[in-house]
UniProtKB/TrEMBL annotation:
GO terms for molecular function: hydrolase activity, acting on carbon-nitrogen (but not peptide) bonds, in linear amidines; metal ion binding. This is Zn-dependent hydrolase. Zn(2+) 1 binds at residues 85, 96, 194. Binds 2 Zn(2+) ions per subunit.
Amino acid sequence: MNLANMGHFASDIMSFIDKLSGYGADLAGGVTRLLYSPAWVQAQHELQAMMESSGLVTLFDDAGNLFGRLEGDDPADGVILTGSHIDTVRCGGKYDGAFGVGAGLIALSHLRAHHGKPKRTLEVVSFAEEEGSRFPLAYWGSGNVIGHYDVFHVPEVYDADGIGLADAMQAAGFGPGKKRPAKRTDIRTFIELHIEQGVILERERYTVGIVDGIVGQRRFTFEVKGEANHAGTTPMIWRRDALAGACEMIHSVETLAVAFGESTVATVGQLELSPNISNVIPGLAKFTLDSRHADKSKLEALCEAIVTRFQAIAADRDLELSTTEWMNAEPVLMNPELTQKLAQLCSSKGLRYRSLFSGAGHDAQMMQKVCKAAMLFVPSRNGVSHSHLEYTEPEALSAAIAVLIELLYDLAYR
Ligand code: HGY
Ligand code: MN
Ligand code: MN
Ligand code: MN
C-alpha cells in the first residue's frame, strides 16, 4: 500500500502536535516544556482533557505521569501501554515525545470507536520527564513507574535557578500521596512511537524504522576548580585557570571518542563559568558530558579513559576536579517477538521499513526492564532533532499510527 492512502491519521496527529506545541512555544518556532514548569502543567491538563473527550479514564500518578485508560474485559490480565514523554529539551522541537503521546491517544480512540471494549486493558501514557533538561537526572517519569526512582526519596538535585526537584514537584501539585502511587507492576507490554532523531530513514528513503535496541548512555557533571585572579597582573605561568584546564579536557573528549570508533559519541553540551567576567581569570568551570555506545563495556572503557585524562590534566595544571555521574542507562535490546510482529505488520501494509539501533535514549529503555518493549521510528527531516527545525512528514506519522493500531488490536482484542 503506498504512503498516500496511509495519510488517514495525518490531520489528527498534526492538529495534536500543533496544539501541544502551543504549550512552551518559543519565538524560534520550537518548544521549551521543562518538567513541572507552568507550560508542562498546562500541557498535561490539556492532554487529560483530550484523553477524556476520547472516552478514556484518566489518572495522574504522584510523579505527574498521566495515563488514559481503555479498560478491558479482564483488568487483571495486565495493561498494554503505549505513549512517550511530554517534556522537551530547551528550544526543542514539536515532535520529540509529543508524537508518541499523540499516536497513542489517536490509536486508542480509533480502537475504542471501531472495536469497542478490548479484552485486555489499553493505556496511553504521557511520561512526566525523559530528557534530563531541567534537573541533572533523566527518565524521572518512566523511572518512577518502574521503581527506579521514588517520589518519597527525591534526589537532591537543583535546576539552573537553584530550585530543587522536590519543591518543583510539590509546586506543580504532585508528590508523595498527592495522586496515585507511581510504581506499577501490571504493565505487560510497552510500545513507543518516536521520531528517529537521525538521518538513516530519510537518507535511505524508509517510511518507518523498527528499533532493535537503544544505546547505553552515561552523563556526568565535572567541576574544575582553579583560582580566580586578575587578568592583567597574573603572569601566565602562575595561573590556575579553570577554563583553560576545562578547554583542554573538553578538547580531549573529541580525540578520545574518535579513537573509540564511529559508533561512539561524546558531547559536552553545557558549560558554566565563574565569575564569568572578561578581566578575571576563571576560578571555576562546570561542564557536562553525555557519552553513548551500543556496547556496555566499550562505553565503560570510554568513560574511564575520559575521566583518567581529565585527572591528568587537572594534576598537571594544579586544578581540583570533581566528577558527578548522574545518569547511567545500559544499552538494551527491544523484545524480538514484538519487533517481529511490527515487521510483519509493516510489510503487510507495503511500508518500506528497516531495523536500526537508536542513538537516542527513550522511555522504552526503562520500560523494557519490567515488560516487553518495542519502538517504531519515523524519519526526521535532515536527521535534525532537539531543534525548532524538527519535522516529519504527516504521512509517515500517519503510517506509523496505522501500524500501532494494528499491533494494539492484535495484542488487546484478539
Ligand atoms: O537525549 C536523548 O537521547 C533523548 O532525546 N532523551
Ligand atoms: Mn524523546
Ligand atoms: Mn480499525
Ligand atoms: Mn529528546
